[in-house]
Design goal:
GO molecular function, one term: chromatin binding
Subcellular location: Nucleus, Nucleolus
Strand content: under 5%
Radius of gyration: 48 Å
Shape: elongated
Helix content: 55-70%
Family: Belongs to the CBF/MAK21 family.
Function: Required for synthesis of 60S ribosomal subunits and the transport of pre-ribosomes from the nucleoplasm to the cytoplasm.
GO biological process, one term: ribosome biogenesis
Length: 674
């Protein structure tokens, strides 16, 4: 009983203590079994929160990462993770009171500060990086990234900065030069477009058609830009066009590229772009193997000449001199593949064949040889046909210029006739020689008028414009080259007297020896005479920049050393008269020209030693009368009667040791009677 009473007392006392605790004030801390109440974080929750400032970085909710090097890095918060700071109700009320009631969303947008503009230099740097990235992507995988070609063209069309436009044009040219295949791409037919093909074939077709369309748009852009002469983009467009003509002349739209170059050559202003276009065309003519591209370019040039009434620069016509007109019928690459026989395999390296295998191998070898021969014949015929059409068009242009006597193009025309004389048909000889004779007569008439008239300025202006003396020398070279190259093929049918041209050459020797510009061309550096009030003008109409002494030596070479058989035997009087006059002319010439002329005299004495021997040995002289050095007909000068080449006695005492030595060789060749 006593134990039960004690336990009941404890329960009552505990109930009383719990009731007292319930009646205690709220701010007093509650205890349980003598300890502080477990809900002690309530005071921390009731504390004021710290507001986040503008400069503070938001806390990242992402886990740290481990780099490949083993370092652990914390990941910063991104834009979506950023949270706006909490705003108390009191602060929110204050902000609402500060904003006016009339403020709208549009007004709030206008208040935002404008974005800073990039400088031109920064834009150019960024565009360079973008162009480099696109070019690398296209070059690495052109069949996957061909859509970037259109993006490059759009960049050029939308851009206004000249520098960026230049960079875009150059980048496109470089890309097309690298990705263009080694064959032409034809457009797909309607049937081919509807036919189902493999994925690889479809992928290749899409790339090829997109490449052709982008290339066409780029060439059109080059053509438009190249027409604006004087613009900064014009030079870049011409350079890009020349690059494509040099590197990918086999691809589509070759005619459009050649048209751009020919249009630039129609301008009479000779600048850097003009010279670059001319050099590109000359190299294109030299490298063209099939002749198709050369024929297209020649027809364009001839059409341009007619439209301009032949009022173009002389160097445009000189581009025809680079043509491969029936001179090289074999492709250069054939020397490495077809023309050169392959090396025979050694006996120890041969594999043993059965009789059937040997027979099949021989039959295959015969078939391959026939196929190669058939392909070569077709290629040869095509090349010959193209070059024949080109030759026909070139000669028609030459004949038309000779007939109309265009002053600025006469020299280039005569030079072309002299080079391609072996390709002219015999039927045209009479017409060509008649035109050449008219030119020589014009030169003689002009020389006579210059001596008689007192109007020297008019004569000098005509000489500067046409340089008739030079044209006459070219006529001599052309006339003799025509017959010399065709005499063997004509089989004795060519029997034309060319003494008229020889007589003119004899008459002009003394005038040429007194010319102060005999060793100078239009590109030679020449100082004016300090004692003269008027400087000596060098004629600018120079064919291939050859000097007058070079033209004279060429004329002597075709008259005495390469004369055709049909022109007859050269008489002793003519050879002696030329020897005498050339010796007189050598006294007036400069050192280099004198040595060259004495060399020709030495060769002339070796070939016609019996005819010139009386001039060097006085005992063999037979004749009446005296020598007339001023008459212009060699047969009437009477060089063999009472004349001797005493000029070589003066040349033996010349200040130049080379001239003295060369004069001794001339005397030695003249005195040796063979």
């Amino acid at each position: 009983m006593a134990g039960a009473t004690a336990s009941r007392k404890r329960k009552v006392s505990q109930f009383l203590s719990d009731s007292d605790k319930a009646s205690a004030p709220r701010h007093a801390k509650a205890t349980l079994n003598g300890k502080v109440d477990w809900d002690e974080e309530q005071d921390y929750e009731r504390l004021a929160r710290r507001r986040q400032k503008k400069g503070d970085k938001p806390e990242s909710q992402r886990l740290p990462i481990k780099t490949p090097e083993g370092r652990i890095l914390a990941v910063e918060a991104t834009e979506p993770e950023r949270q706006e700071p909490e705003i108390d109700d009191e602060d929110k009320d204050l902000e609402d009171e500060e904003l006016p009631e009339e403020a709208s969303d549009d007004e709030m947008e206008e208040v935002e500060p404008p974005k800073p503009k990039k400088s031109e230099r920064q834009r150019i740097v960024e565009v360079k990086e973008e162009l480099a990235t696109m070019a690398s992507s296209i070059n690495e995988e052109p069949e996957e990234n061909y859509h970037l070609l259109r993006k490059l063209q759009d960049l050029f069309d939308s851009e206004s900065n000249i520098t960026i436009k230049k960079l875009t044009l150059i980048t496109q040219a470089t890309i097309f030069r690298d990705i263009i295949p080694g064959y032409r791409i034809r457009p797909l037919t309607a049937e081919e477009q509807t036919t189902k093909v493999a994925s690889d074939v479809r992928k290749l077709r899409n790339f090829e058609q997109s490449l052709v369309s982008s290339y066409k748009a780029y060439i059109d852009t080059l053509g438009k830009v190249a027409r604006h002469i004087g613009n900064q983009l014009c030079t870049v467009a011409i350079s890009c066009t020349c690059t494509l003509v040099d590197t990918v002349p086999h691809f589509n739209f070759r005619q459009e590229l050649l048209k751009i170059l020919v249009e630039r050559l129609s301008v009479r202003v000779v600048d850097e772009a003009f010279v670059k276009c001319r050099g590109t065309l000359e190299e294109f003519f030299r490298q063209d193997e099939s002749g198709t591209g050369s024929l297209e370019a020649v027809r364009m040039i001839i059409k341009m000449l007619k439209a301009k009434d032949y009022q173009v620069d002389e160097s445009v016509l000189n581009t025809f001199l680079s043509l491969r007109l029936l001179a090289e019928l074999n492709v250069k690459a054939s020397y490495d593949t077809i023309d050169q026989p392959g090396q025979k395999m050694k006996k120890k390296d041969r594999l043993p064949f059965t009789k059937k295998e040997k027979k099949a191998y021989k039959e295959k070898k015969i078939v391959d040889a026939q196929m190669k021969e058939a392909e070569a014949v077709v290629e040869h015929e095509e090349r010959e046909r193209n070059q024949s059409e080109t030759l026909k068009a070139v000669f028609l242009t030459y004949f038309r210029i000779l007939k109309e006597k265009k002053p600025t193009l006469m020299g280039a025309t005569l030079e072309g006739l002299a080079k391609f004389a072996h390709l002219i048909n015999v039927e045209f000889f009479s017409d060509i020689l008649a035109a050449l004779r008219e030119l020589v007569e014009d030169a003689q008439t002009d020389a006579d008028a210059e001596e008689e008239t007192s109007d020297e300025e008019a004569a000098q202006s005509l000489q500067r414009e046409r340089n008739l003396r030079r044209e006459a020398l070219l006529c001599i070279v052309s006339a003799f080259s025509l017959l010399a190259d065709q005499a063997n093929e004509a089989k004795g049918l060519v029997n034309i007297d060319l003494s008229f041209f020889t007589t003119y050459l004899y008459s002009v020797l003394l005038l040429l020896s007194l010319s102060p510009t005999i060793e100078l061309s239009s590109k030679s550096l020449h100082l004016a005479d300090p004692s003269s009030s008027e400087p000596v003008e060098i004629p600018s109409s120079k064919v291939n920049k050859a000097t007058e002494i070079e033209m004279l030596l060429r004329s002597l070479d075709v008259v005495f050393f390469k004369a055709p058989r049909g022109t007859g035997e050269i008489s002793s009087a003519r050879v002696a008269a030329f020897t005498k006059r050339l010796s007189i002319a050598a006294l007036q010439l400069p050192e280099k020209s004198c040595i060259a002329l004495l060399t020709s005299l030495q060769n002339l004495g070796k070939k016609h030693s019996r005819k010139v021997h009386p001039l060097f040995v006085s005992d063999d002289m037979v004749g009446d009368g005296t020598y007339d050095p001023f008459i212009d007909t060699p047969e009437l000068s009477n060089a063999l009667a009472g004349s001797a080449v005493f000029e070589h006695a003066l040349l033996a005492n010349h200040y130049s040791p080379k001239i003295r030595e060369q004069s001794k060789l001339v005397l030695k060749s003249g005195t040796s009677n063979r």
